[in-house]
Amino acid sequence: MEILSIWAGSLLIPRDRVCSALYPSTPPGPAWCCEWLRCCGGGEPRPRTVWLGHPEKRDQRYPRNVINNQKYNFFTFLPGVLFNQFKYFFNLYFLLLACSQFVPEMRLGALYTYWVPLGFVLAVTVIREAVEEIRCYVRDREVNCQVYSRLTARGQPPLFLFITQNQRVPADMIFLRTSEKNGSCFLRTDQLDGETDWKLRLPVACTQRLPTAADLLQIRSYVYAEEPNIDIHNFVGTFTREDSDPPISESLSIENTLWAGTVIASGTVVGVVLYSGRELRSVMNTSNPRSKIGLFDLEVNCLTKILFGALVVVSLVMVALQHFAGRWYLQIIRFLLLFSNIIPISLRVNLDMGKIVYSWVIRRDSKIPGTVVRSSTIPEQLGRISYLLTDKTGTLTQNEMVFKRLHLGTVAYGLDSMDEVQSHIFSIYTQVKPSGPTLTTKVRRTMSSRVHEAVKAIALCHNVTPVYESNGVTDQAEAEKQYEDSCRVYQASSPDEVALVQWTESVGLTLVGRDQSSMQLRTPGDQILNFTILQIFPFTYESKRMGIIVRDESTGEITFYMKGADVVMAGIVQYNDWLEEECGNMAREGLRVLVVAKKSLAEEQYQDFEARYVQAKLSVHDRSLKVATVIESLEMEMELLCLTGVEDQLQADVRPTLETLRNAGIKVWMLTGDKLETATCTAKNAHLVTRNQDIHVFRLVTNRSEAHLELNAFRRKHDCALVISGDSLEVCLKYYEYEFMELACQCPAVVCCRCTPTQKAQIVRLLQERTGKLTCAVGDGGNDVSMIQESDCGVGVEGKEGKQASLAADFSITQFKHLGRLLMVHGRNSYKRSAALSQFVIHRSLCISTMQAVFSSVFYFASVPLYQGFLIIGYSTIYTMFPVFSLVLDKDVKSEVAMLYPELYKDLLKGRPLSYKTFLIWVLISIYQGSTIMYGALLLFESEFVHIVAISFTSLILTELLMVALTIQTWHWLMTVAELLSLACYIASLVFLHEFIDVYFIATLSFLWKVSVITLVSCLPLYVLKYLRRRFSPPSYSKLTS
Questions:
Q1: Is the dihedral of CA 99, 105, 110, 114 positive or negative?
Q2: What GO molecular functions are on record for this protein (predicted)?
Q3: Closest by alpha carbon to 891, among 829, 947, 820, 802?
């Protein structure tokens, strides 16, 4: 290829230095500098001129061309993390509490008893966030360091980039040259717009005509382009060459662009960078990364506010019982500090460390290999998803089309009977043909001839071009000359057409050559059939069909072939009694159905058509209408040849995964940039829409009245899946947002096609606002990033088409089927474990606070702490921390049971594991146990106050350990170790606690029986209640485990 011959003049450059190298005038500094310029008005998007061959004109500034998924930078990290922590009520509360200890009148104990726990909580959070940010930076750096080749010359800015086949475009560019002989190239845009069809792109004509790519450095020209915007489907610009006489000016449109994120599908191209960094079309369609706060954390924050209200009430009651004597306002503050344990400071650190454990367990799960947790702050969100919004291409499907069915009306051929088709084709081309017309031409055709006509029509009616590439053994020219099979690659805008042509090759009729005016087929006997292409009528979304008129060079016969959707072809073909029924049967199997027909034309008939067709194309007024009318004159009484069924291969186990999600009470919406017909077929094939569900296809609406009528028609449907296009969706949301979302949320499934990335994010946002439920977005492409970042829980599928969605997501998986286990097992366990852990930490603090309240009320409402110094710190750390934290290993059912019965997940959607009801139950348990222990110690102590401390504190520790054992549902060996270790630590530390506890007293029999009685009274009733509840009103999971 000619372009590859000038590598000597090219240099390698990483992606993140594309613009800093291309435009040396780009100001240095971090990305926040550019944001500051924009905020001050200096970065407003404006039309621009890119000068080529003008070294003196290089004043245009460009943003750095980097992918950045980090939430913070070097300067905002610490302030940002601290702000996100102290916006939680209880963290701010403990900060104020710790600061109050600097005032002598308010001090209740040593400063370290307040500042050490708070510092530990903040340190754990900062370290966790720092690790995640570093990991994110490393992942982004890997992408930003991808190397590209550029064309440069001494004294000139290196404006031109080389992009080779299967390489991703790093910036928005204008297409200048291609190595392809036909002067064009194909792009894969599924990562940008979600469409599976390849897009044809054309280079600037005057640069394509240059002898070599190196001549680009010699011409003086410029590109004028519109300001950066989010529209990925349109572009307006001009290319002007000044050094020609006269100057050449060409208009530029979307066909001349190479947007960042697309992949070159054919040849090698040269382009000039137009937009970069935050001005890229793909970046402008995505939102900035945000720090997500889980619903569970907000609920815990709400509970701490309730606890704070209780703290204030208790403090006021204590002062009121003192009749507000003396400096009562200082007494209120001292009581607030004394009962501060009501709000446990260890709650935040326990939950954060629990999240780290959940993330580690997810990464270590061998049944979902390759899963990465990129945001460890929201694993509980996975357990409460109500709406799943998924992309189609690359997420549900592999974007690999497979020919599945050929139907001739009386007989159908599937994958297992394709050898019969092959034998029919072989028999046609190996039998001896008669020299002239015989009576056999008038009788009913044999099955072989019917199959042959159908296969030949499929092999001729398309826009596919065979391309020959060097395979290391045969060079390109030789391969093209000999039609070398191993070197041939099919190129087309639609993967469906490639699948059809590949199938005809597999049965014996091979497309070996094509240009603008001719086509060559090879038969099983290696005979070359030549056809002249007379006319082509390309597929459009309005016509839903494509046609071609060809002349057989050997016989001179002219044939008009057509294929299209059954809804339009039914009125074109001759009457038959099987088309509608068989199309419905194949569509229910999720196949993309095409109806293939033909019509033989006499020479005079074609000449008459051509004259009228040319005349129509020359019309100034209503040209498209007149052209369509002329073509329709041919589209009558065509002979129906066959139906074809093509399937977009689903990812592994998509159907059972979607069924699991549906049984778990999760509604699945499919948001795709692909065509309506394609999206509908995939929804049926994946069983997103079940067989017994009707589908309402929302017709195209353009104004308010049409939208109103269509919404009324949709309202009359019941239990009906909805299919709607992006254009109609935009109109509905503009005029009837509330009504549309209310109806859509009632549907069992929704399919939105032709969606832009911005629309995907908008749908997620509307679902959150209108329903108040949690959403999960799943995608694999750059066009899914906005949706993933906007959702409550974003999951990226790391596919073969890049890692952009994976890098921006909270969780990354390698296959869609892993989503089922991620939600049903890990999401469910994370939520239930965190709910149990948070309530137990609150119970632990309420117990000791209740004891303090009882103690103060008995001793004349004195604001004197019951436990001081190490006792109060040790209670929530070494004595009870390990058993309580071991609840993060607890599980009510095995993972296999959770996957087998997804209905267990549905119970979590109501939020019962952490609700006001369960919170109140734990508060009552805490008050009962705290009062029992304190009053028991007061009744049973003999003479000294220090005995009250020994009896009550020991009973409190034993009660907590026994309560953990009561709460655990499935024992893990680490739980047993934690219980025994904590008890051993307490017994061993008694030797060093002589300042607070009488060591000689705890060795007496009196101490032992008193502690045993108090502990038994505080715990035994709860054990009895638990047994009775499990016996007479067992939870749903216990029925599965018994």
A1: negative
A2: ATP binding; ATP hydrolysis activity; ATPase-coupled intramembrane lipid transporter activity; magnesium ion binding
A3: 829
* 515 annotated ligand-binding residue: no
**Residue 11: strand pairing partners:** 150
**Beta strand pairing status for 257-258 and 172-178?**
antiparallel
Q: Is 820 annotated as a binding residue?
A: no
What is the C-alpha separation between 650 and 828, in angstroms, rounded?
A: 27
| Start-to-end C-alpha separation, the chain | 71
The 8-class DSSP code of residue 228 comes to P
Task: Please give the distance of CA 726 from its chain centroid, rounded to a whole number.
Answer: 19
784 marked as binding residue:
yes
3-class SS at 144? helix
DSSP SS3 for 110: coil
Which pLDDT value is given to residue 29?
Answer: 36
What residue ranges in 731-870 does DSSP mark as E strands? Answer: 749-753, 774-779, 793-797, 811-813
- Give the pLDDT of residue 963: 92
pLDDT score of 828 more than 90: yes
Percentage helix, strand, coil, to 5, in the chain? 50, 20, 30
Between strands 774-779 and 385-390, the pairing is parallel
What are the pLDDT digits (tens) for 218-267? Answer: 888 889 998 898 888 888 889 998 888 788 888 888 889 999 888 898 88
Strand partners, 257: 174
Burial class (CB in 10 A: 0-12, 13-18, 19+), 402: middle
Residue with tokens 């592999």: 398
More confident residue, 783 or 869: 783
Model confidence pLDDT, tens digit, residues 560-612: 999 998 888 988 998 888 898 898 888 878 788 999 999 999 999 999 999 99
Ligand-binding site membership of 674 (annotated): yes
Lowest mean pLDDT among 131-135, 572-576, 747-751, 1019-1023: 131-135
Both structure tokens of 400: 């690999």
Q: Is 894 helix (H, G, I), strand (E, B) or coil?
A: coil
* Burial environment of residue 520 by CB neighbours within 10 A (0 to 12, 13 to 18, 19 or more): middle
For residue 598, give the nearest of 625, 655, 567, 559 by alpha carbon.
559
- Looking at the annotation, which residues are catalytic? 391
Residues with Cβ < 8 Å from 709, sequence gap 6 or more? none
Res. 785 pLDDT band, cuts 50 70 90 = confident
Mean pLDDT across the stretch 347-357?
87
Nearest to 180 by CA among 333, 4, 301: 4
CB 866 within 8 A of CB 981: no
Q: Is the dihedral of CA 470, 474, 480, 483 positive or negative?
A: negative
Q: Which helix (H) or strand (E) holds 295?
A: helix 295-321
Residue-averaged pLDDT of the chain: 84
DSSP state of 781: S
Taking Cα atoms as reference points, which of 425, 424, 378 lies closest to residue 775? 378
Which has more confidence, 434 or 846?
A: 846
Distance CA 118, CA 115 (A): 5
| Alpha-carbon span 177 to 719, nearest angstrom | 53
Give the residue among 191, 276, 281, 271 at the shortest CA–CA distance from 230.
281
Of 236, 258, 254, 276, whose CA–CA distance to 60 is shortest?
A: 276
Of the candidates 866, 846, 871, the one whose C-alpha atom is nearest the C-alpha of residue 855 is 866
Please give the angle made by the CA atoms of 416, 422 and 425, to the nearest 5 degrees: 150
